Amino acid sequence: MVVTEPKSKDLASQCVAIGMRMAEQRCIIARVHSGSTDHPEVEELYRRCSGGRARYEQMRESHHDHLVNLCTGEVIESQSEDIERSQAEIAKKLGYRLIDHRLELYAVPLDNKAKR
Predict the structure, then answer these.
(1) Of 29, 37, 77, 111, which has the maximum CB count within 10 A?
(2) What share of the chain is helix, strand, coil (3-state, %, to 5)?
(3) Per-residue pLDDT of the chain (116 residues; tens, 9 = 90+)
(4) Domain for residue 57, yes or no?
(5) What b-and-e string marks burial along 2-35, b requiring 16 or more CB atoms within 10 Å of the CB?
(6) What's the domain count of the chain?
(7) Which strands, in side-by-side order, build the sheet including 104-107?
(8) Torsion of CA 75, 84, 53, 95, to 10 degrees
(9) Are residues 12 and 45 in the same domain?
(10) Position 75 in a domain
């Protein structure tokens, strides 16, 4: 029986071997792609990669939401009383009391050339 390394390590190793920096995003793509049993198109691979991301941060006294710049990976914290109010109203209209939530927006800069 021949044991081979997981494809994700192989893909990551290949990237490093040609001089690519293995940023978090590339590691996620390598892991998700290598774990696929099919041959996903780019859009499907993107969906799979962005679905399971988790960001860990210290607990804060105030709640905030995130906007993720898909070009750079930068995470921008934001706060909006209007959004907070709307979320509570939606839950109430549906017959629920909102306990907690997480809002993460994925975006690209309006002037794509200026913020890469």
Answers:
(1) 29
(2) 40, 10, 50
(3) 444 444 444 676 777 778 877 676 777 787 777 777 888 888 888 888 877 555 555 545 667 888 888 777 788 888 999 999 999 999 999 999 988 888 888 888 898 554 44
(4) no
(5) eeeeeebeebbeebeeeeeeeeeeeebbbbbbee
(6) 2
(7) 75-78, 65-69, 104-107
(8) -170
(9) yes
(10) yes
* Sequence letter at residue 55: R
In a domain, 73, yes or no: yes
Instruction: Supply the pLDDT for residue 101.
Output: 85
The CATH number for 80's domain is: 3.30.1490.190
User: Is 44 within the bounds of a domain?
Assistant: yes
Supply the range of the domain harboring residue 17: 7-51
Distance CA 32, CA 35 (A): 5
Residues 69 and 40 in one domain: no
Closest residue by Cα to residue 32 from 18, 72, 40 = 40
